Structure formats: C-alpha cells, structure tokens
Amino acid sequence: MDEFASIRHWTSGRQSEEWQRERGVRLGIGDDAALIDPAAPIAGVTPPYEYVLAMDTMVETVHFNETTMSYEDIGYKALASNISDIAAMGGVPLQALVSVSVPRQLGPELMRRLYDGLYACADQYGVAIIGGDTTSSPQHLVVAVTVTGAVEAGKALRRSGAQPGDAVVLTGPVGMSAAGLHFLLAQRERGADALAGERVAQLVQAHQRPAPSVRAGRLLLARETCHSLNDVSDGLASEAWEIAEASGLAVSLFEEQLPRSGSMTAYAGAAGIDPLEWMLYGGEDYVLLGSMELGDAAAAQVAFHSEGLPFYIIGETAAGTPAVELIRKTVKGELRQRLAKKGYNHFE
Amino acid sequence: MDEFASIRHWTSGRQSEEWQRERGVRLGIGDDAALIDPAAPIAGVTPPYEYVLAMDTMVETVHFNETTMSYEDIGYKALASNISDIAAMGGVPLQALVSVSVPRQLGPELMRRLYDGLYACADQYGVAIIGGDTTSSPQHLVVAVTVTGAVEAGKALRRSGAQPGDAVVLTGPVGMSAAGLHFLLAQRERGADALAGERVAQLVQAHQRPAPSVRAGRLLLARETCHSLNDVSDGLASEAWEIAEASGLAVSLFEEQLPRSGSMTAYAGAAGIDPLEWMLYGGEDYVLLGSMELGDAAAAQVAFHSEGLPFYIIGETAAGTPAVELIRKTVKGELRQRLAKKGYNHFE
After folding, report:
1. What ipTM does this complex have?
2. d(Cα B335, Cα B348) in Å, to the nearest integer?
3. Which of B32, B57, B95 sits opposite A231 (nearest CB)?
C-alpha cells in the first residue's frame, strides 16, 4: 500500500462528514490541508470563543514500548495526552491532526490497531480527526498529535495567574499511572505476577488509557474563581514548579493531604515501595492542578463532589522566590523538603 | 537544561508579542496550549475566512541526513514544506507548532541552529511560532510541524475540482530539488566535486531551502478560474495522480512542455543522467500543479509573467478512469507512457 491507500485504510468510514461538521470541519482528511469554519457554533461554548492549539509527541522507548502498551493503547494515549492540554486551559477539544512515523517492519494491520485506539479516544471526547501525515521511520515508532479546541474568549485558565495566599487544588489522585507502569515493567522481568488482580487493573488502565480532565476543566472555568491551572503530565512537582515560575511565587504542598488511590497504596505496599516518588514525579496522571482563594476552593470542592467528581485541597501559595516544597509531618515535627523540578524519566 | 529551559533558549526573543498579535495570536509559547483569536483580521484575506490546518513531518535518514542538510536547513525546510500545504489551498500561512524528538547525543546548540533556520523561514513567510513540544529520541531526529493558515471562506483550492478538458498548469520547474540531492549524495561519495559551481548552488538551494509558492497560490485563488490545485511535494507524477483520483479523470502531461531549469539540465548533462526521473518523481519542488480551462490558463500565464512569476501549461485532462500518462514525441512518432503513482524514495 502507498501512503494514501494506507491512510484511507486506517481512517476512512470512521467519522461521518455530518459529525465532523458539528465540530467546525469543512474539509477533513484527503487534501493538502483541512478546512475549519472558525465561526461555527460549538456545543457548550458561549461565543465569541478563542481557538486553543497544542501539540504533543509520543516516542517508542521514551514514552512506551511493546511491553507497556498495545498499539490500541498507543493511539488512544497519544490523543488523550493532547486533549489534556486543552482541558488544562478550560477548553473543549474539537479537532486533531496525527503524524505517524512508522518503522518498515510494522505492518499496516498494527497501524490500523493504533488508529482503532486513536478513534476510540476521538469518539469518546468528540474530537474530529482532520489530517496529518505518514512517513517511514528508520527504527522507532513516533506519534505526533496536534489538537485544537475552543474556549470562551478571554477566559482560558493559564499557569501564570496564581496569587499569593491561594489554595492549591488537585482534581484527582496522582501516581496511579507510574504505579501501573511499575507493574508492567516488573511483570516483564518476573513473568506472571502474584500481585496482579483487580486493583492492579485500575493502575494499568491509568497508564495505558488515561482520562483527560475535560469536564473538570470546564467546571473550573465556569466558576470564574480559578487563578491558575495546569494538567499533571510531567509529574506533580514539575507542574507545581511551572505554576510557581509562571506566577512568580512559592508553592507548598502538604504531604498528608495528597490524595492516594487505594489501588496504588495497596500495590505499593505489596511491592514494598514508598509511592511518594510516583505521586510527585510519575506524571501522566492528566488530572488538573490549580490555585484559587481558599473559600472558593472549598466551594468548588462542594460543587465537584455534588457532581461525583473528586477535588482536593493540597497546598498553598505564598509570595516569594519561585520554588516548590513538600511539608511532611513527622514524629520530630514538621519537615519542609524542597522538591526538584525535574520530571520523571520513565525508562531510566 | 530541562525541557522548558531548552525551549526558552531556542525560542525566546525571536518574535515580538505585537508581531504575533497581528497574526491572530493571543497566547504563544509557554503554557499548556496556545490561544488564537479566530475573528482577528488577517492582512490580505477578505473576511469571512476559513482556517487551514496541515501537518508534515521530517525524519532523519528518510528526509535528510547530516550530509545533505545543515541543522539550519532542517529547521527551515520543516516549516517551508508545511507552508507549501497552505499555499496549495490558496491560503495565507499564519501560525505553526513544532515538535522535535531529539537524540541524546545532540547538544542544545545544534538544536538552536535548527530553530535559527525555522525562525528564518517563519520570518520570511510571516508565520508565528506558537507552541509545540520537545521529547528525547532513541536515535534519529524527528521534526513534526503543524501549520495554520487562512483562506477566504468557500474559496480554498482543492484537488478534487478538475474538469475534463482542463489545461494542466505548473507554477515553476520541477526536478531541481532531486538534482541538488543527487549532487549532495554524489559529493559525499566522491569528495570535492569537479561539477560544483554556481549552477549547482541553485540546485542545492532548491533542496535545502525550498521556497513554498504562497504568492502563486494567492494569485490563482484570486483569479477564481482555477479548478484544482496541489503542491509538488511527492513528485509531479504522484501529485498529478492525486488530482486524477480526487477529480475522477485522466491526466496527460506533454514531456516537451515540462519546464527544465538550466542549472538542472546542465548538471544532468555533466553527470550523464536523463533528468526526467528527477522531474517526474523527485518531489520537494513545492511549486503548484493545477488545472483550469485553457483560455483561463493562457490569461493566468500573462498575469503571472507580468508579475515576474513563471507559469507553464504542461498537459490536459480528459474524462476517463483516473490515470496519468506522459506524451513523448520521438522519431517514431508520439509515445504514450503510463506514469507510476509511486513517489520517489530519496535514500533508496
């Protein structure tokens, strides 16, 4: 198959023209470029809106390998991680372009499975796949995705708006993806694993099929009290550093208030590992980290809980040189520990 | 340097906020996503406009290697090839996102040179760099670019509009990029080359720093007589096939009317090579291939020439099964040769 036949094989018949039209698409896959109507009404977004654009790439051996992810998972997660960037601005995802660089030994059917996962994610989040490109790759699979979205003009939630004295909030537990990856890599080394079970399945799911927090982002934007927002892609510490640097203030996180999922805690206990490293540096959790006044955070927590969504108040900001510290309660009293900025490198 | 420090090192201070604002940008590099005002006036484009989106990737050893391209060239060409897709729709390029997957052995200074070339192209074509991402790569450099543009609503030039009886037109010579690549690869094998000189410099330039045909695309769109349009990225034969298949008709190209640059002809003669293969299958010429009624093509030719731009009438379309043939005049009379669809693989 040539490039065009391959792309047709992977993409045709997946999304109807009418369905794409509702997402602003005037011309999808098949020409030199796609066409979008920037004045099209977008369901749930009050006009006038701004366009949101983000691009994120997944590389074999850096972000995944054949042990940790199926081809369906690779396609799903490549789009999900991009949608998360739209969620982190408070936006609604709309369209995506996908570029795959494919090793020659990979047959078209494996790539079709990658597109199966990609479209599963696209359908779940209402994203129209409108273009991209396919090239060969000398050795490793690379999947680059660009995603577009819409957000009410002037309302997007940025990293840079945190105020001193804000509460630091988090929309879900962290560390589950890293725990799932730990299990997958340990499983490879040890064969079938006695630790496997229902709870591990949740962790593996968190790693392979992460759920971007679109609904949480929209709720936070609508409340109009959120000062800053980031998605946790590179790890909690790294994202807190970004807010600290972009907003020019110091962030303190309270260890005992960090949410720990039961499945992660159980797995870490069975494996004899302190999960704090996963929680602070694991990344790829795709929950949202933000800041707002403490009273607004308490109100947001009530609103999130009434919708069945988790919401945690995990720290506070203060005027000062940008930095992130973890406050731990120990038998010897309160311990303040400066957190490194560096994200976690999954395969080192 | 971490990812964010690297990105700042490569991108900060390159384009002013005001300059980006004139291209619709409300928030550029530095957050989870960029923000664009889809109602911003765009110089030279009559509202209402549609948004144009394309994505194209360059992979080391597939599209370039250290012998054929400097790092500045890689950055320049990665953006130029994307701008060409906007030109092929008759659009004006506006913004770009850039994802680089970088082998560990590549230092930040080589990447800075890549960004030097990227911004040189961005400045030349007025494109705002608004985002992207950086990952490591196990071995090969991969540069994926998404470019946006604007085109008058409903006016974009597509592949699918060719009519039977159209003249096939071309906005510049083909085969120069392939000739330049041939020289670069031959030079590697033979050391300093006796064929080098002024004329070869033009061919090398065509390969390393291609010029997307934005002005030609805008002229064709404004004339409102162009039925179909493609850019010559994969080779003349391949692009003619795309128009033939998308429009459901047959394309004939007249060999003696194909434009040959003097430098390409001279180099091919000195190297003892028939350049027809380069012209038909070389690709990466980034001129435009289209179709329109013969009388309109003649009028367009006059208009292009009066602006100092080349314009060639090189073939015709006819009702029939999609196919592309080359009509050659030989001593034995007219020879009709069916052209393969396959594009050229540069390194095979």
Report:
1. 0.94
2. 29
3. B32
- The answer to whether the CB of A288 falls within 8 A of the CB of A217 is yes
Q: Which of B53, B142, B289, B344 is the best residue to mutate to test the A interface, defined by the most A CB atoms within 10 Å of its own CB?
A: B53
Tokens of A287: 């929950």
* Contact residues, chain B, for A342 at CB < 8 Å: 2
Topology alike, domains A3-152 and A159-338: no
Helix (H) or strand (E) holding A73: helix A71-87
Residue at A180: amino acid letter = G
Which residue of chain B comes nearest to A147, CA vs CA? Answer: B33
The CA-CA-CA angle for residues A266, A270, A271, to 5°, reads: 115
Map out the domains of chain B as residue ranges. Answer: 3-152, 159-338
B49/A61 CB distance under 8 A: no
CA B98 to chain centre: 17
Nearest CA to CA, how far is B9 from chain A (Å)? 16
Q: What does the pLDDT look like over B21-76, one tens digit per residue?
A: 999 999 999 999 999 999 899 999 999 999 999 999 999 999 999 889 999 999 99
Token pair 């990029």: residue:
B177
First to last CA, chain A: 37
How far is the CA of A104 from the CAs of A133, A232, B58, B102, in angstroms? 16, 34, 16, 21
Reported as type and span, the H/E element at residue B329 is: strand B323-330
Q: Under DSSP, is residue B149 helix (H, G, I), strand (E, B) or coil?
A: strand
Contacts (Cβ under 8 Å, ≥6 apart) of A33: A131, B52, B53, B54, B85, B86, B88, B89, B91, B149
Query: Which chain A residue has the Cα nearest residue B288?
Result: A32
Mutate to test the interface with A, among B2, B6, B55, B347 (most CBs of A within 10 A): B55
Of the options 3.90.550.10, 3.90.650.10, 3.50.30.10, 3.10.580.10, the CATH number for the domain spanning B159-338: 3.90.650.10
- Residue identified by tokens 């429009």 is B247
Contact A49 B30 (CB under 8 A): no
The domain B3-152: what is its CATH number? 3.30.1330.10
Interchain CB distance below 8 Å, B140 and A137: yes
Report the residue from A38, A135, A343 with minimal CB separation from B62: A135
Among candidate residues A35, A39, A44, the one with its CA nearest the CA of residue B39: A39
Burial of B65 (0-12, 13-18, 19+ CB in 10 A): middle
Q: What is the pLDDT of residues A265-322, one digit of tens each?
A: 999 999 899 999 999 999 999 999 999 999 999 999 999 999 999 999 999 999 999 9
Can you tell me the distance from the alpha carbon of A95 to that of A35, in angstroms, rounded to the nearest whole number? 11
Residues of chain A contacting B133 with CB distance shorter than 8 Å: 55-57
3-state secondary structure at position B82: helix
Q: How far apart are CA B138 and CA A59, in angstroms?
A: 8
